Amino acid sequence: MSNDGKLMLCPNPWCIASNPHAVLSHSGHWSGWAVKCFTCDVIGPQADSEAEAIAEWNNRPDLAQQMAEALRDLINGGSGQSRGKEWERAETALAAYESAKQEAKG
Prior knowledge:
By secondary structure, the protein is an alpha+beta fold.
């Protein structure tokens, strides 16, 4: 859930000094809570309470999973014509990721 109000590190892999804090946000017609990293300015989802904002920040999807899904969409959206070595490498990388994921599950 929210890890007892403790914030996980910033999800930005290029953030040099993760510094997330829950903040009250006012943006146009909406006012609510969000978690923001004050080092790289990444902002998590908006929520109605501080606890919700922290939970959303801490329970974000796995970046590797998101990348694999995007890669799958790219592969499945291919024209089926000669896709070249880039497509072959992408398919191999996706297969390796999914295999490692299954092994990790046990």
